[in-house]
Amino acid sequence: MRKSFFIVITKLFLITLIVSANQMTELNNRAFNAVKIKADKGDASGQFALGGMYFHGMLIQKDHKLAAKMYEKAAAQGHVKAMYNLAMMYLNGDGVEQDTLKAINYFTKAANRDDIKSSVHIGDIYYFGQGIEIDYNKAFKPYKKAADLGYPIAQHKVGLMYKMGYGVEKDITKAKKYLERSAMQSCSKAQYDLGKMYLDGDGIEKNMSLAKKLMQEAYLNGKEEAKIILDKYKWNIEL
Predict the structure, then answer these.
(1) 238 and 205 in contact (C-beta within 8 Å)?
(2) pLDDT-based confidence at 233, cuts 50/70/90?
(3) What would the pLDDT profile of 144-167 be if each residue is shown by its tens digit?
(4) What is the rounded CA–CA span in Å between residue 191 and residue 205?
(5) Which among 3, 58, 160, 233 is least buried, having the fewest CB atoms inside 10 angstroms?
(6) 163, 153, 228, 145: which is closest to 183 by C-alpha?
(7) CA 221 to chain centre
(8) Contact 68/51 with Cβ under 8 angstroms?
C-alpha cells in the first residue's frame, strides 16, 4: 500500500514538472517574441535587448553574429550601450572580424556621449598598443576625460602620465592632484604610487606619516606590493 502511494506521488510530481517546464517554455517564447517584435519595428532598446539575448544565450541559442547585427542596428540609432558592446566585439574579434579601428570608432561614439568605460578603453588601446601602435598622446585625452568624470582608474592613469610626462608635459602638481583623487576613491594603485612619492620625496616633500597611511590603505585594498614597504619600515597594519 505504502509502495503504491509513493508511486502515485512520484507520478504526480513528474507530471507537475512536465507541466511546469511546458509553461516555462511558453513564457520564455512569449518573452523572446515580445522583444523580437520591438526590435523588428526598429526600436533601439528592443534591438539592444535582442542582441543581449543572442550574445548570452538567453531564451534563445547563442549567436554572436546575430548579436553583433542587433547591436549595430541599435548603435546606428544612438544606443550608447550597444556602441560599447559592439566596440568590445570588434576589439576581441567576437562574432565579427577583429578590427581595432572599428572598435575605436564605436568606443569614440560612446565616449562622446560621456560613456566612461569607452573613454578608458580608448586610452588603454593607445597606451598599451592593443592591436595598434602605442601612442601616449592619443591615450591621454580619453583617459583625462574619464578622470574628469570621476573614474578612479582613469584618475590614476592620468596622474602617472603627468608624473612621467607620457603624452603630456610633465607636471608633478597635477600628477599629485589626480593621484589624490583616485586614492580618495580607494584605488589601491593610486594609494601605493602616491605613498611612494611621499616616501621617496619624488617631486614632493617627504612625508613618512602620509606614506605610511597610504601604504596601509593600499594593502588593505588589495595592493600586495604595499606589504613589502610596510614590512621594511616595520609599519603595522591598522584597520
Answers:
(1) no
(2) very high
(3) 999 999 999 999 999 999 999 999
(4) 16
(5) 3
(6) 153
(7) 18
(8) yes
- Asked whether 161 and 136 are in contact (CB, 8 A), the reply is yes
From 128, 129, 127, 163, select the one nearest 143 (Cα to Cα): 127
DSSP string, 90-158: HHHTSSS---HHHHHHHHHHHHTTT-HHHHHHHHHHHHHTSSS---HHHHHHHHHHHHHTT-HHHHHHH
- Nearest by Cα to 142 from 163, 164, 117: 117
Dist. CA 226–CA 207, nearest whole Å: 16
d(CA 54, CA 69): 10
Residues in the chain: 239
Residue 61: all three cell numbers together = 541559442
Which amino acid is present at 228? I
DSSP code per residue over 70-99 = HHHHHHHTT-HHHHHHHHHHHHHTSSS---
Prediction pTM value: 0.83
Burial label for 9, CB within 10 Å (0-12, 13-18, 19+), is exposed
Q: Give the tens place of pLDDT for each residue, 167-210.
A: 999 999 999 999 999 999 999 999 999 999 999 999 999 999 99
